[in-house]
Specification:
Helices cover about 30% and strands about 20% of the residues. By secondary structure, it is an alpha+beta fold. The protein has a single domain, classed as B-lactam Antibiotic, Isopenicillin N Synthase, Chain (Jelly Rolls, Sandwich). An 8-stranded mixed sheet has the order 2-3-11-8-13-6-5-4. A 5-stranded mixed sheet has the order 1-10-9-12-7, with no helix packed on it. α3 links the parallel β2 and β3. GO terms for molecular function: desacetoxyvindoline 4-hydroxylase activity; metal ion binding.
Amino acid sequence: MGTIDTTKPNFDSILSERIAFDETKAGVKGLVDAGVKKIPTLFHHQPDKYEEANNTSHVIPVIDLKDIDNQDPSIHQGIVDNIKEACETWGFFQVVNHGIPLSVLEELKDGVKRFYEQATEAKKSLYTRDMNRSFVYNSNFDIYSSPALNWRDSFACYLAPDTPKPEDFPAVCRDVILEYGKQVMNLGTLLFELMSEALGLNPNHLKDMGCAEGLIALCHYYPPCPEPELTVGTTKHSDNDFLTVLLQDHIGGLQVLYEDKWIDITPVSGALIVNVGDLLQLITNDKFKSVVHRVLANQVGPRISVACFFSTALKASSKLYGPMKELLSEDNPPKYRETSVADYVAYFRAKGLDGTSALTHYKI
């Protein structure tokens, strides 16, 4: 399963359905507002082959950053060791006492909700498929390539490396997104330092490579779904960046694939979820794992989440990334060929969320 099969007789009807949905510029929320009781077939997903796990046996690590500045080197090393284990085994962990005020997290969720719950007419002018804008609002970025659509709408804000112009962002959520962007940049820089240490490298190593250069906030709105068993909120995928910092609300639905079973990531109040991206797996030569995850559709909603991606995305750059030579040896030769961030992201986007990893394309 990948791009739509253009040889199938129903290709034209599938495409015209997707075009019609796109042209409403109202997204999935528009369907819910119109009162749909049965979801359109373009949202129907094939059943997943992996089972749900009994969650009592697996809980992703929660790492407390409260004592990160403690002068006792053993306390600092303990945090580094926890991060190392989380990145090598799970690819996912939650952080508490991360330094971002709870009031900012709450205001951010409220601001994202305010944006989506404006009148459709107020949002239509911002609906676009032009990825070069600094604010991109649409439903299903891969609408013309994915096997089935996701039950969610999204907007992306490009926060770094270029300083955003406040007037490019909607007034209903502008201030809090810019504030949150600054705070996440600080947290991400700290996490890259701890991860560099976890790899046995100088704390500035990943930062000096440019891993913290770009930041994109992807703000999702998952409306309540009348038939959640037929669709998903986000298809299973791994992230096309170096690192993701995710704020999710209390509703839940995020699952990570661990030992071929789906594990729920239960929301922890005030916590942020951190996960390794594909590019970090590539440069660590598989030492850190970029793990497959998905979001279920839910009859309850809306669910709000904000994923901050450390990546320069499609910005042209000649900088190439391959497995770090400091981690390579005769027993551990490079497993990937070099790529630029823009090329990797372009390949990921063209492929769409089809349930396969873009990393396999770069394997040696």
